[in-house]
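Narrative progress, year one. The postdoctoral researcher (J.K.) led the effort to move from monomer predictions toward full complexes, under supervision of the PI. The following entry was the first complex the group processed end to end, covering 221 residues in total.
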Amino acid sequence: KNEVEQSPQNLTAQEGEFITINCSYSVGISALHWLQQHPGGGIVSLFMLSSGKKKHGRLIATINIQEKHSSLHITASHPRDSAVYICAVRNLGDMRFGAGTRLTVKP
Amino acid sequence: DTEVTQTPKHLVMGMTNKKSLKCEQHMGHRAMYWYKQKAKKPPELMFVYSYEKLSINESVPSRFSPECPNSSLLNLHLHALQPEDSALYLCASSPGGGDPYGYTFGSGTRLTVV
């Protein structure tokens, strides 16, 4: 079993839909990251969380430390949101990655 | 400056060539990382430099040779690579000292070995 599990693996949505991507982890962490990677591109850090909730534009990330679970929400999704979203957790220097969720938003 | 800059963005090299990948940051970060990412897979850690010293080498073949000339610069020297080494090579940096925040990725170098 991977230390960082994401669901779903693939997600197709229509433009405007509300999207949720989930991440569960089984190790102790100092921070959780949500990352975005467009096809063939580098990785952009969307959020870094150690507790609670963060919001940036149409993106919202939450974390429940007790349940070892985090969610990434996208409101009013748009085709440009199509990308792979990766959950990664850190404990001291070590970063552990989930397998990623491939999101496709259709116009 | 809040970026990690990687050059070149694309590289095609033969199996007998010697080339280098470069990574630079000016955020004062003291930890720098090399990752390898194959298509549709998450990044795999290769090397970690902490305070300019190699602290982690994830059993990477010797045809990959990292170098950290100073706290802002990280190189990855490539020699006698194989076609299966073709991948996206990502650099990242963080403040170091166990600080979990400020982890920043570069945009990567897409390497093709022919």
